[in-house]
Specification:
- This protein has helices at 14-32, 79-97, 149-157, 174-204, 206-212, 216-222; strands at 2-9, 41-46, 67-74, 104-111, 139-140, 143-144.
- The chain is α/β, with parallel strands linked by helices and 224 residues long.
- The longest helix has 31 residues, at 174-204.
């Protein structure tokens, strides 16, 4: 996830501003492996009195074509990736818009993954992203595939097993998923506890097995 903010002096055409944003996004795709359609950008046009900068800082000659580009990104990239991004943005803007390297000012803001929300009030990057999940266990070369942890969570979320849960395409609340998972785990724990109590009772009273019509071996199988 990235958020692109671009500032420049007023007077440039709309196509010019759009091209800056698109080239920055494509540079992110090439160097930061940003997903397709993960394109969010703002462009601010400022009057000269509100666009303040030093023309010679670091011995770099800047002109009125200066573009300030600030990128908010997740804190997962290396220094090498960042340098590659800077170079690629300069190359792309120079080639497509004839912008001089001296007039491209770049700044990265790094944030933790949980600091993003794409909508619905959820921190989508705070949890692993599940793949598409189906209810039925799939067979691979004659072997039954064991359901993953996420499939278990989704089974807790769905109301019935007749509806396939496609986690990548349906909107759901992770909080509801985990709450239902806790309920299932508590129920399973209670069932194991009751089974163990039954085994202890059968072991303590030799007449209990005859009275209840169940042996200790059968009770242990229930606990598996």
């Amino acid at each position: 996830m990235t958020l692109i903010r671009i500032s420049l002096r007023a007077g440039k055409p709309a196509d010019y501003r759009q091209a800056i944003a698109e080239n920055v996004y494509e540079s992110l795709r090439e160097t930061f492996n940003v997903p397709e359609s993960d394109f969010f950008a703002t462009v601010d046009e400022l009057e000269s009195r509100d666009f303040i900068y030093d023309r010679k800082y670091f011995d770099i000659e800047r002109s009125d074509d200066l573009v300030l580009i600030q990128l908010t990104v997740s804190n997962t990239r290396t220094v090498g990736q960042k340098n590659a991004l800077y170079r690629r943005i300069v190359e792309r803007l120079g080639k497509s818009l004839a912008l001089r390297p001296q007039d491209i000012f770049l700044n990265l803001l790094k944030v933790a993954k949980e600091n993003w929300s794409f909508g619905n009030g959820d921190a989508q990057y705070a949890y692993p992203r599940p793949a598409v999940i189906g209810w039925q266990q799939k067979k691979n070369r004659g072997k039954t595939r064991v359901r993953s942890y996420w499939e278990f969570l989704m089974s807790c979320y769905a109301q019935t097993k007749t509806n396939a849960a496609f986690a990548a395409s349906r909107a759901f609340s992770l909080r509801r998923v985990f709450n239902r998972a806790v309920e299932r785990l508590r129920a399973a724990h209670q069932r194991r506890k009751q089974c163990q109590e039954l085994i202890d009772y059968l072991a303590s009273d030799h007449r209990a097995s005859q009275d209840l019509g169940i042996t200790i071996c059968e009770a242990r199988r229930l606990c598996r």
